[in-house]
Each structure stands twice: as C-alpha cells, then as structure tokens.
Amino acid sequence: MSSPMNLPGARSVFDNHVHLTPRGENVKAVLRFQSKGGTAINLISLPDMEAPPSGYYETVYSKTLDMANRVRAETTVKVMVSVGPYPLDYYMFQKAGLDPEDMMRRGIDMAAELFLDHRVNAMGELGRPHFPVEPEDLRKITGIMEYAIEVASDIDCPLILHTEDLGQSGFSELEHMASRHGIAPYRIVKHHALGADFKFQSMITKSTLATRDNVHRAIESGQDFMLETDFVDDPGKPDKVIPPDSVPRRAIMIAQQYEDWERIFSRCFEEVPRKVYGIDLLNPD
Length: 285
Ligand SMILES: [Zn+2]
Prior knowledge:
The chain contains nine helices and eight strands. By secondary structure, the chain is of the alpha/beta class. The protein has an eight-stranded parallel β-sheet. The longest helix has 21 residues.
C-alpha cells in the first residue's frame, strides 16, 4: 500500500472550502490538516455575528485576510482566499433595519475590488439559503446572486456558490445564468455538491464534502471535482461540518484504493484548481 506522504515529488492536497475564526481552533485546525499531508486551503470568509451591520464587510473581509496571513506565517500550507456576502446576511441586514440588497451589492463590489488588487482569489461564498424562503425574498436574493455573477463576469473572477440542493435542473439554471452574463461556467463552483450530483454532467464545477461516499462517486463519474470540508471552526461545535483533516485522510484512501491515484490527485488537487482559480498550488508565488 502506498501512502501519498512518502512518495517522491511535490504534491498538492487541497481543501477547497475552509472557514476559520480567531475565536475557534484556527491555526491549530490547519496544523491538523498539514500533519496528515494537506498542503493548500481555500479560506472563505465567515459570517460574524459580533461585527456591526454598518461597515460589516470591511470587518469580515479584513478578519479573513488577517487569518490567511496568520496561517501563512504559522504553517507551510498555501492559502488562497475567497470573500463575499454569505446568503444569510440578507436576514441579518433586514433585522438591523438596513437594506439587504444595497448592503450585499456593496459587499460584492468590495470583494471585486479586493480581487482586482490581487488580495483575494475568488468571490464567495454567496448565493441562496439552503432552506425554502418567501417568494419575495427569494426574488431579491436571486437578484443579488445574479449581480455577483455579472460582476464576476466583468472582472473574470471565480465565484463560489452556496445554494439549496440543486439537482440537474438547478445546475442548468446556473449554466444559463453563466452564459447570460458571459462568464465561463467552470469558473462557478457549486459548493456542497451532493454525491448524487455526479450522476449528471454540468459545466459548473462541483466541489463536494470529502466523505468516503462522495469521493467514490466523484471519482467513478470521471468528472472534474474538488474536495472540501466546509470546516466551520465553531468553538461550540468541534469538527463542524467535517474535521479539518478530512481531505488528506481521503487522499490517503484514494492512494490506497485506486491504481491511478496519481492521475486523480493531479486532476482534483492541481489541474481543476488551476483551471477554476488560475492558481498553481504546487508553485506558490
Ligand atoms: Zn461555507
């Protein structure tokens, strides 16, 4: 049995969706990831209930950028950063008596500026809540998502979407939105793609939770995919959504169970991230 850790040559093991907070495990979680063979993460901004609603995104984005720098200073893990208005921010602004559409559009513009300044690599996670919402709110929330797609298209920025479970029709809706706004559909990442979503093809990039079942389904589909933990770093709920070292653990499983594991690794941990984000995870700059 071969283990990816003791094979010659540089190799990337990438978690495409991680949240960290100064109040949680933060760098320690990344060290757990690193100790199992993880080499790169996509650090995604996390809603912050303590941040004041006015000036909210300045606070949230700068905390994310600071956290990325801490991880870079204290680990060998390569960190790419994504920032954007989280879908549920909509209700937070509503409760605070602010106009959610206006606030979230400004959050999108601010993320776009950071992207143009090369301080972040992608926009997200944004999109729609994962539970049913009132038709009027749904219309506005979808409008905000389309605005993000439009902005991303203008500046050629990758976009990470959080949505309800989509199924084939939902993926087609996203493909249509992408083509309407002129962004390459593979630049749009459906975060939390389900194992069942690998039964059909889509030009939207699928990123799936690194569970054993999802990994098998993704590999056997022959499709492009990325793996993620969606680790939330909640001090009250350790290892939420799944533990931070899950991607390297699944990488070891892949190396043990698949003859062509090297090809799977290069595709999932190097070629797909390069195609979607335009970054080389093997040769950090
Ligand atoms: Zn997330």
